[in-house]
Design goal:
The chain has about 280 residues and is of the alpha/beta class. It has helices at about 15-25, 35-55, 60-70, 95-105, 120-125, 160-170, 190-205, 210-220, 225-235, 235-250, 260-265, and strands spanning about 5-10, 30, 70-75, 85-90, 110-115, 135-140, 150-155, 175-180. The structure holds nicotinamide-adenine-dinucleotide.
Length: about 280
């Protein structure tokens, strides 16, 4: 791999968006996933997303072809050892991420390991790594190609040089970076996910219909998307995992997940990605 390749680990919803903006900004991208079919699915999804940009005349045919040419997939983790930076976007499961970071940190002493985790402790992830000063949070928002923010999260162990490299990559990707000190939920999700959780309590208690709750926040608080539609977009499993992290990390009962949210996740109603959440998607 040439110098400057960025690895993306886990090419689901977020990994695909991250890979797309990396490729369109000129970076070579190595996609890695444990599920082999997911690699071709991701390539197809990114190709479709770029075609939509071409249709809207936001991207030229040549730029689309060049971006697709910068993407390569692998299911051999060792290949990531040549990457300058690895951005991890695997599921929000502490044990899984710790194992991944332990393994990834053994591949190279130079690679920066950035996690897109929504809420997990970067300090704890860094603690299992061989070079903890190179571990950092790089928290993108969904949909990645549209939303401008990146939360750059500093673990206790993160070096200034690592923060500077991630800020510089964010700039190259045309994102605005805000610096956050490692803390459960960081800034955006500590504010956003409890609001979504409260909206789900309103549904559970029959205070208003789902559509009216969404409409109320759009029209009354100028939110572009209502909280329940947003939960479907984020993924109800991700929302539940964040509430659990907030409850555990901050120890305050106000962060208890709404029982309806837990039941929907148990039923596999995860939102857009499963075809059904608060709304049905075809
Ligand atoms: N969905 C969102 O709106 C959102 C927003 C910001 C951050 N995040 C965070 O991004 C991360 C990914 O979320 P997502 O919604 O894209 O998840 P997802 O379920 O859509 O995708 C996860 C991908 O990781 C792969 N995977 C599973 N185990 C793996 C392993 N051991 N190694 C490599 N790949 C593995 C899966 O096959 C899948 O392709 C989570 O940490 C989540 O909290 C999500």
């Amino acid at each position: 791999m040439t110098e400057g390749t960025i690895g993306v680990v886990g090419v689901g919803t977020m990994g695909q968006g991250i890979a797309q903006i990396l490729a369109t900004s000129g970076r070579n991208v190595l996609l890695y996933d444990v599920a082999t079919p997911q690699l071709s699915h991701a390539h197809e999804a990114i190709s479709k997303a770029l075609s939509r940009l071409v249709e809207k005349e936001k991207l030229s045919d040549d730029a689309q072809a060049a971006a697709l040419g910068r993407l390569r997939g692998t299911n051999t983790m060792e290949e990531l050892g040549n990457c300058e930076i690895i951005i991890e976007a695997a599921p929000e499961e502490p044990a899984l991420k710790k194992q991944l970071f332990r393994d990834l940190s053994r591949l190279s002493k130079d690679t920066i390991l950035a996690s897109n985790t929504s809420s997990l402790s970067l300090t704890q992830l860094a603690a299992v790594c061989e070079h903890p000063e190179r571990v950092v949070g790089m928290h993108f928002f969904n949909p990645v190609p549209v939303l401008k923010l990146v939360e750059v999260v500093r673990a206790e162990q993160t070096s200034d040089a690592t923060i500077a490299r991630i800020e510089s990559l964010s700039l190259q990707l045309n994102k605005i970076a805000v610096k956050i000190v490692d803390s459960p939920g960081f800034a955006v999700n500590r504010l956003l996910i409890p609001m979504i959780n409260e909206a789900i309590f309103l549904v559970q208690e029959g205070v208003a219909s789902m559509k009216d709750i969404d409409r109320a926040m759009q029209l009354g608080a100028a939110h572009p998307v209502g909280p329940l539609a947003l939960a479907d977009l984020i993924g109800l499993d991700v929302c539940l995992a964040i509430m659990e992290t907030l409850q555990e990390g901050l120890g305050d009962p106000k962060y208890r997940p709404c029982p309806l949210l837990s039941r929907m996740v148990a039923a596999g109603h995860l939102g857009h990605k499963s075809g059904r959440g608060f709304y049905v998607y075809t």
